[in-house]
Design goal:
The complex is a heterodimer of chains A (about 220) and B (about 260). Chain A is of the alpha+beta class and about 220 residues long. Chain A is built from 11 helices and 4 strands. The longest helix of chain A has about 35 residues. Chain A starts with a helix and ends with a helix. With about 260 residues, chain B is of the alpha+beta class.
């Protein structure tokens, strides 16, 4: 396909992601789109040039963070708001990322708890570790081992709760893969390439859960 | 969340988490029946004991306030069960069976147990959507998505900063520690960037997510309006007006009343 034909084709589906293919938050959205077999265009935002802190990007997300998202005339930001929109709007298509009985509000709330836990308990710690172990090195900075030790201690406590949870259920929100599990994947993929990997592998149920979620075809696609 | 910040500095480390049973256990095969547990406005006072909602927390905690505000907006009956934070009750059983992360609040609605205040408020808004105030933008998925955007903004951009400022300006003093002025300055520098965005947003929309009051507007502003940080809110006209509107709501007055008891 020529460049202009490709653009015309993807613009018909109306879905655009403005972000960076290596960014944890952007990958959360890309994973969701892949799970749903949705066509989309990834519009690269040059983070090292500070493109995300300037117009026109700021009109898409005034907080100056990737990703931003567009579906026709709907414009969104905040990766977890975007993934939830996709999961609901395209409920009939691709992988179901909600609970099997999507109208059951109690079950939905259980999934919502897991999403909040990922956002408030897991991600802040996992992101700091990814920053120390991975991204700092890319920018030529050195890892701060004191911070690593502190954050690993916090992550261990969170993963202990996950270990107990996963002894009772196959996935975090129940027996099926949902957004709750998906939201964790990009950060976990980074941490598996660092010394912090041991926190996941030394907990048997967490280890199994990680293996399951990263072997999914969508999870492999975002690494390409 | 404030309670957690306090306790982690003042108490010995919590005992290891032991889950004797999962509070999140549910049988996918069970229908979650609500019909016999709903509180209706036609019920006589004696049926109020049928109210099945229990909140485990303390009114001083901002995360607990978030849930209480939502319950009052929805005009729902509930029981507030205090958790003895100073005794570290939130880090031990039986509380850990409600929330294995050892943080208030937790909520029970009949046989359903929930934690994480924003998951709880979303549940309240959905399950009781016909009662009291609507707390989500009305309409289809595209419109609802906007509520989620600003809920995430509140949780990811505003709250982490506001809660740290409250810790410095309010809670440290209560516990005999001294405010770190450099930290406050740094945090306020971040807060103003967020409030500038709120100002721009509120110039285009009555409330954050849309033109109706939603969960994203629940006025949990971390006691900042009782500190010098209030100037940051009051100096921005749209933000100032919004704060006045959301804190003038009857449901919020009830939350504040609970704190006085």
């Amino acid at each position: 396909m020529t460049a202009s034909a490709f653009e015309k084709w993807t613009s018909l589906t109306g879905i655009k992601v403005f972000g960076h293919a290596a960014s944890i938050s952007t990958r959360r959205v890309l994973l969701t789109l892949h799970e749903k077999n949705l066509d989309f265009e990834l519009v690269h935002v040059d983070l090292k040039d500070g493109e995300h802190k300037k117009e026109p990007f700021l009109s898409r997300n005034p907080f100056g963070k990737v990703p931003a998202f567009e579906d026709g005339d709907l414009k969104l930001f905040e990766s977890r708001a975007i993934t939830q929109y996709i999961a609901h709007r395209y409920e009939g298509q691709g992988t179901n990322l909600l609970q099997p009985d999507s109208k059951n509000l109690a079950h939905y709330a259980i999934m919502a708890i897991g999403m909040q836990v990922e956002a408030h308990q897991f991600d802040p710690v996992a992101s700091k570790l990814a920053w120390e172990h991975v991204f700092k090195l890319i920018y030529g900075l050195t890892t701060d081992q004191a911070i690593v030790a502190e954050e690993e201690a916090k992550l261990a406590k969170v993963l202990d709760v996950y270990e107990a949870r996963l002894k009772e259920f196959k996935y975090l929100a129940g027996d099926t893969f949902t957004l709750t599990d998906l939201h964790h994947i990009p950060a976990i993929q980074y941490l598996l390439g660092t010394p912090s990997k041991k926190l996941f592998t030394e907990r048997p149920r967490v280890n199994e859960w990680v293996a399951e979620i990263i072997k999914r075809p969508a999870s492999q696609k975002i690494l390409e | 969340m404030m309670g957690t910040i306090l306790q982690s500095r003042l108490l010995p480390p919590p005992p290891p988490i032991k889950l004797s049973h999962s509070s999140l256990l549910f049988s996918p095969s069970q229908q979650h029946s609500r019909s016999n547990l709903k509180f209706t406005s036609k019920s006589s006072p004696s049926t109020i004991t049928m109210a099945s909602i229990k909140v485990h927390g303390v009114p001083m905690s901002t995360a607990t306030m978030r849930v209480l505000a939502a319950l009052y907006e929805k005009e729902l009956e509930f029981e507030l069960i205090p958790v003895d934070m100073r005794a570290g009750a939130h880090k031990q059983e039986p509380f850990l069976s409600l929330n294995p992360f050892g943080q208030i609040p937790a909520l029970q609605d009949g046989d359903l147990t929930l934690f994480e205040s924003r998951a709880i408020t979303e549940y309240i808004a959905d399950e009781y959507s016909e009662k009291g105030e609507k707390l989500m933008c009305p309409g289809c998925n595209k419109v609802k998505a906007l509520t989620k955007v600003w809920l995430n903004v509140e949780g990811q951009q505003f709250d982490p900063i506001a809660s740290k400022i409250a810790f410095e300006r309010v809670f440290k003093g209560m516990f005999g520690m001294t405010t770190d002025p450099a930290a406050v300055q740094d945090l306020e520098g971040k807060l103003v960037r967020v409030l500038d965005i709120y100002e721009a947003r509120l110039s285009k929309s009555e409330f954050l997510a849309c033109d109706c009051f939603t969960l994203a507007d629940l006025p949990v502003i971390h006691y900042l309006m009782g500190t010098d940080s209030k100037a940051l809110f009051e100096s921005r006209p749209k933000v100032c007006e919004w704060v006045k509107k959301i804190t003038a709501r009857p449901a919020w007055a009830k939350v504040v009343d609970l704190q006085k008891q």
